[in-house]
Amino acid sequence: MVDSVENTPAEGTRMDLRSYIRQQPVMLALLAALGVIFFLAVAGLSRAYHAQRDALGNRWFSRGLADLNAGRFDRAVTEFRAALLYSRDNYDYQLNLAEALTGEKRTAEAYSYLVNLWDRQPENGVVNLELARIAALRGQTEQAQRFYHNAIYAVWPGDQEVKRRETRFELIEYLLSINAKAQAQAELIALQENLGEDPALQKRVGDLFLRAQDYEHALEAYRLCLKSDRHNEAAIAGAGWAAFQLGRYPLAERYLQAAVGANANDTQSAERLMTTELLLHMDPFRRQISEAERAGIVVDAFAIAGRRLSSCATPKASAGATSSEPSLADNWAKMKPQISEQHLRQDPNLVEEAMGLVFEIERQTSATCGTPTGADLALLLISRLHEGN
After folding, report:
1. Coil, strand, or helix at residue 318?
2. Contact 313/368 with Cβ under 8 angstroms?
3. Cα 255 to the chain's mean position, in Å?
4. Chain segment 99-155, per-residue pLDDT in tens
């Protein structure tokens, strides 16, 4: 009986220990559960915080894009800077901020962003294009061309071919703006090879070839345009001018007649057509005209040159002439008694001599008094047509 009483406290302790051991996994599980819940709560709050920051950044970025596209660069700069407060390393935010700064002509600030972005993604087309524009604004021609070429062959979002083509167009415009016509011609030739027969693009290229004074390729581009869009008035007029500049006057006449017929308000083509028709009519050396007609043309040309001479202070017959040498006026006056249709028909060599003097008068008066108009311009162009013959 005594033993039973003495063992009771020990047995109770063992029972409490067993009970505690049984409860410990439950407590650990509860603590673990509480830890998970706490972690999820913190993670959820963190996600909510970052989502809120992203939403605010995107909201400012969207406003900045709208103002950038509308040309409101000062507002766009403020909005992109606000967006960067919520995401300092965001590539797109920095890039668009640089574009807005460039739009405001704050090129130094834009350049610092763009150089950093270029280091991160040197193949980015937009970054290279913006750097090209800044170099162009600074007059750094070699750098501008290098970045333009980088942009042409870089990675672009969306339709890469369109972006690359437009970048090359921009490069060509830049080259023409600095009068680098030979380089512009080379870029245009490279561009034209990949355009196909799209009439709008061929017309655009034709216009640029005209500005670059590559009239052969301009005529080719206009013809490709008219192949698909034969009623394109601007392309018809452009082809007429290109043919005119190439000295292909019968072809120029056909195009210019079509241009004037299609658009009666095209005064420029009308003036060029008048000059072309005068030129074709006043050329005494063209084939298939009679001796009488040739003589009549020479008489008229000689008289026209005489009037031009009297209205312009004419230099001596040659650049190195002395006061003892005869002037153009002296030579014209000396030859004038011989210039009749009868004499010209009897002496074919006189036609050559008379027209030689006419051409010299037109060339020198053009240098002294500026480019002539009307019949005098026609005679000047005829002289260039027969130079070296």
Report:
1. coil
2. yes
3. 26
4. 999 888 898 999 999 999 999 999 999 999 999 999 999 999 999 999 999 999 998
